[in-house]
Structure prediction request, 167 residues.
Amino acid sequence: MTDFNFFAQIRVPGELGLLIFVGLIVAGVILFYFFRDRIKDALGFTAAKKTILEQEIEQRLVQIRQLARQQMFKDASILMWQTMTLVSEGFLGVGRAPNESARQLGVKLMNRGDLDPSAINAIIVAFEKARYGQTPLTNQEFKDGLSGLHQFLQMATSIGEIPVAVE
Prediction:
């Protein structure tokens, strides 16, 4: 039995071989550039993977911004409230009881002493007006609630710790 090496049979002139070699290197660099994040993830070079809770919060913030751009302040404010309850439970361990009102949860969070009451109140005011109010939420009322949510997120994430995601 004789060995047959296909590549040994190919004869490429020196200049063409160099051109092919450079082309392969350029193609490799381009592929690496476009897939660098996937390559880093596969090799484990990413700094810290986001937890499921952090991913959920980011998705909700994107949804809130989309709703706000569509002037759907009621839905956006309700989602802000739901995000606040998710964060308070996930980062601070303060959940909402089934019979607890938004205001009662807010008071419970304010009584901790390490959170800004005005931020919590702004979220609750926007939620209550969106959910129960007779008049639509104004742009400014929504902005106040959103600002409160961002402040609350900063405080809660710096205070609390969240469980690491299991993969």
The two ends are 50 Å apart (CA to CA).
